[in-house]
Structures are given as C-alpha cells and as structure tokens.
Amino acid sequence: MYMYLPIALTSVNYLVVMGLGLSVGLLSGLFGVGGGFLMTPLLMMVGIPPTIAAATDANQIVAASASGTISHWRLGNVDFKMGLYLLIGGFAGGAGGVQVIKLLRATGGADFLIKMTYVVMLGLVGSFMFVESLNAMRKSKKASATAAPAAAPKEKKGGFFAALPMQTYFEKSGVTHSALVPLFLGTFVGVLAAIMGVGGGFLMVPVMIYMLRMPMHVVVGTSLFQILFTCIEVTYLQAYSNHTVDFILAIILLVGSVFGAQIGTVLGRKLHGDQLKILLSIIVLAVTVKIVLELVMEPSILLSYAGGH
Amino acid sequence: MKRAIMHSTRFFMAMALALFGLATLSVPAAQALTCSVTPDNIPITFTYHGAQLAITGQSASTDDLVVTITSEPVDTALKNYEKVGGLVWMKKGTLEFKDAPRVYLLSSTADLSRILDAAELNRNLLGFDALREHIRIEDSKGNPADGKWFDEYLKFKKQENVYDMREGAIVRQHGENGNTYRVDVAWPYQAPPGVYAVNVLAVRNGKVVERASANIEVKSTGTVAALSKMAFDQAGLYGIMAVIVALLAGLGVGAIFKKGGGSH
Questions:
Q1: Least crowded by CB within 10 Å, which of A50, A77, B189, B217?
Q2: CB-based contact, A234 to chain B, within 8 Å
Q3: pLDDT by residue (tens digit) across B206-264?
Q4: Cross-chain Cβ contact A303/B90 below 8 Å
Q5: How many domains does the structure of chain B reveal?
Q6: Distance between CA atoms of A19 and A257, rounded to whole angstroms?
C-alpha cells in the first residue's frame, strides 16, 4: 500500500495517490485543463513538499494531456494550427512572466497582489462562465425540439480583431482570426500563468471559448495539445534546474491520470458544450471559495515549506 | 595493649565490610550503562514506511534513564504566515531556525522535570524547553524573532512525527541478566536519510552521572538511491527520462483504449 518517494523523501499510500491522479485526469479529459490548481494542494495534503508537488504535477500532466490529446485528436477535436499559435505566444509570455515576477518579488509585498489577482481572476472567470452557460442552456431549452442544441458559439466578426493583418481561417474551429490574436492571447495567458505560478488551463479555456469563439469540444482538445507542450518544458526545466521532479510520484499519479483522461474524454463526448462549461465554472468557483477560505482563516500551523501556489 | 589493637582492627574491618555491603546495596552502579539499537541500519527501499526500533541495554537499577535520538543540528528555513492588510493570511517572510536537530525523539523512565533540574536539562539539551533555549530563530534580516515561533516550529515538527517526547516510556526489568531497560521507538519515515545518534543518560540525584551511545544509519539503497543520485548528478537526463516515460504512458494508454473500443 505504501511507496517511498526518492525525491520527496516521504512515503505515500499509492492507492490514494492513484485515486488523485484518476480524478484530476478525468477533469483534464473533460475540460481540457491541466488540473494543477487542484492537484498541487491535494499532493501537499498527503505530505509532499510544495515545490516537489508542483513540479511533479507538471510531469504527470504530460502523460494525462498526451492521453487526452490523442483521443481528442481521433475525435477531430484538436485545432493544431490554433494550438501552435497559442503555444508560441504562451512560451514567450511564460518567459516574460518569469522576468516580471522577479521584478515584482524584488520590490517586495508583491505576493499579496499576486494572490489577490489569482482569486479575482478565478472568481471572475468562474462567475462569467457560469452565468453565460446558464443563459445559453435556458435559451436552448426554450428553442423548439427540432433546433440543434447549443453547441458552437457563433463567430462574431468585425471591430478591432477583424481589422488586424494576417487574417487566417482556422478550419477545425471554423473561425477566422488574425494570427496575431492567438499569439497575443497566448502571450497574455502565459504572462499571467507565470506570475500566478499555475499552468493556465483554466484561463486558456475561457479565452478560447469567449475570445476566439471556438466550439467547446475543439477547445478541450486544443487546450490539452497546448498543455502537453507547456508541461514538457516545465518538467524538463524543473528537473534540470531545481531537482524537484519525483519520478516515482509522477508514475503513480499518471497511472491514474491517463485512464482518468480517457474516461473524461468519453464522458465529455456525451455532454453538451454548455453542460461542460457550467460544470467547469462550478469547479473554478469552488476552488475560488476554497482559496478565499484558506486566506481568511488562520492556518493551524503558522509555518510552512517554501513553494506551492 | 596488643588485644586492644586486635579488637580495634576487627572493629574497623567489620565497619568496612558493613559499609561496603551498604554501598553495594544502595548503589549497584558497578553495572555499567550500555546501549544498543536494533536495527541500527535502516535501508530505504520502495516499500519503506518507517521502522520499529528497539533500544536496549543495561543500567544501574535505581538510576533514571533518558534516551534521545537526534541528528546533527542544522539551520532550517521556513516560510511564516502573517496576517496581511488585517484580513488575509499569507506566507510573508522567512524564518531561520538555527542549530536545530532534524529529528528529536526523547524517551525517559519518568517525567523530566521530576528527575532533573532546569539547568541540568538545558546543559544536556533534554526536553522541548531546553530546545527552546538552544534554537535561535532569526528573520530574513538576521533579527531575533518572537518566541511564539518556537511553539509553531514544535507543532510543525510534531506534525511531521520527527519531534516527540514520551516520558515514562522506558521499561525496566530486573532479572538474572542484571538490570536491563528497553524502549520501542517508531522511526518516522519523514526523517531524511542520514546518521542519527542514540544517547542514553543515567540520572541519579538530579544529575546526569553516566552516558552511553549508539548510531543509526538511515540510507537509500538500490533503485531509490540510484534515482535520487541521478536526479542530482544527471539532472538533464533525468528530466528527459521523466518526460519520455510520461509521454509513452499517455500515448500507450490512449492506444489501448482505442483497441478496447473506447473511442467514438
């Protein structure tokens, strides 16, 4: 039942850890998020030091997102072109964000600002998605039985985005945007994700739905494809520079998460885009409430290891 | 005269014998204090989840005993939570706990405060109050920090099972093999690999009168040791291996699901 982890220097119940992998992998396959915002605190609860929890989680997301990407790809849900533009932006943004965080930390007192930004962003994104998908579901109920269920949001053209150069048609998503738009949005999410110390899936998914107007199922597949590459980079860098990747912990987690991602993909196929959105928004809101409670309530022990979210 | 001298010699001899008898009765300290730990070598393998230690030895029957298991003192940096803006709790600064052992497990035959006075406890670093006097706590600017942080440090270490005090846990036996003692200690898996010192102190009349010691070596072996060495010595290769294994696992399971008809 117990397995010793050579880098975390602690022993864990592998059935519990596999269970964590399975549940977070399921969310990953369903919603296209990495799930780091859930997994890292859960790992800390089973006694893994924060820095190792965050780095090893990235390693396990490589497996879960590879598993999810391949099954979404088979279903025709991955927009590689869009994913690539977002990825290039995300890499640049991530590198920039790391520099910004260094500057902010040097000035001192930035942690408060970062944490608040994180909570506000999560709260706003969660509330917006919740209200929007609730409205969409009501509308689709009112519509006649012959009408197609609310799936892909209609592409909105015009205004500033349409005036930009390098207009490109993204076949899989069925949208036309300037190539600069996903590049810019990728950079924006990359900067925020680096500042907040998270993967950014929960930000990228709403950006793809509401700003790039992509259909929900393509959003999930494309987000996973993008997360796969981001987490490969993070795993390598964390292993190389900080020695914080616990290979054994990652393997136990990924045994659960790769299956979870498959189950999530199958489940996601049975749900409508709006149902997926509303479920994701509920999870994001629940995480927001948890973080707010943690912030407001006095911790039982006022000391902790460095690192973590 | 000669008779008188003979008489007094006998008297002194008798006195000496009586005194010797008394001395052997009241202080059977001829029995030297010993200490041994079983096992004294703890290998860390994948199935390692701590160990059960038995610390045994011989001692004088009337002495009280204190057994400590400690590591070399180290400086430990921890983040401390503070209330920011009067509303939220955040990891604000870093506190350095200087000269603090990684592990501190103490057992004794009786309450420490009953068998030793404060000065002797402090001198021998016995008990959490002595540790409080010994460990220096500094903030990131090197200023001494408030004493309340020692209480938090203690809570932190106790939660990790690496600091513990069990007064009265040592069991004594008086038998044919002399006076023996034994204490069973649950070795916490949270304690990092290293060499730990086991010290046994005999206490008589409020003073430490005798000591014995042994060592425990906790060491990673086999694949656990190889992986941990690789993570530090060949970090690049380790990172690539971690990525490739994760990729193969993800793609492999994806393929299995397709074969199983999981896709639509």
A1: B217
A2: no
A3: 999 999 999 999 999 999 999 999 999 999 999 999 999 999 999 988 888 765 444 33
A4: no
A5: 2
A6: 8
